[in-house]
Design goal:
By secondary structure, this protein is α/β, with parallel strands linked by helices. The chain has one domain: Rossmann fold, CATH 3.40.50.300. The chain has 5 helices and 8 strands.
């Protein structure tokens, strides 16, 4: 029987620009669970997500993804949705998603994922013409076009209207019910029932 998925952090420390962002941070998140990371600006919310994604070096402590693929890094098993939507303006909506689906090793059909986020009618439109909310929805489409067990979401509701926030909430609930894990940094409530909170304080 496969070991259940668990993201485990023990005594994590992160340093940026010569300053300790956080230190001695520990938590455990199992399959089907969400961890909401809160705190003031500069407390390290985004840094924690980037560290888990492998985009920042771990200064101290240990981070493991138990039950995951031992041949792949944690970042290779995660979706990282950051502040930047990482789109190529000259490519169409569908071409952007097709690129990311292939890059991330997904097998989903881009047009189906676009329909899920309400962008299928704009598939041929260059991404440069999308509104901020539409660009965010296109980024969210990557979460379903390429299946990965760990979602790292940095202010995921940014630029989304109420309807789109509801769509994202449904996607997050579905991901968790399927045994996925979510770590989300946010200033706003996401509406995820049973989610635990990790409040970061600025390091001294």
């Amino acid at each position: 029987m496969a070991e259940p998925l668990t993201l485990l952090a023990k005594g994590l420390a992160c340093r940026r620009g010569g300053r300790m962002i956080f230190d001695d941070l520990s938590f455990s998140i199992a399959a089907g669970e969400a961890l909401i990371v809160t705190g003031r600006n500069g407390a390290g919310k985004s840094s924690l997500l980037r560290l888990i994604a492998g985009l920042l070096r771990i200064e101290g402590g240990d981070l493991s993804f138990q039950g995951g693929d031992p041949e792949r890094s944690i970042g290779e098993q995660a979706h990282y949705l950051g502040h930047s939507d990482a789109l190529k303006s000259a490519l169409s909506v569908e071409e952007n998603l097709a690129f990311w689906t292939a890059w991330l090793g997904g097998s989903g059909v881009p047009r189906e994922a676009l329909a899920t986020v309400g962008l299928d009618q704009l598939a041929a439109l260059p991404a440069a013409y999308l509104s901020a909310g539409q660009k965010r929805r296109l980024s969210i489409a990557r979460l379903i076009a390429a299946k990965r067990p760990l979602w790292l979401l940095d202010e995921p509701t940014s630029a989304l209207d109420a309807v789109s926030q509801g769509m994202l909430l449904d996607l997050m609930r579905s991901h968790l019910s399927g045994g996925g894990i979510i770590v989300a940094a946010t200033h706003l409530p996401l509406g995820l029932e049973g989610a635990r909170e990790l409040k970061l304080e600025r390091a001294a």
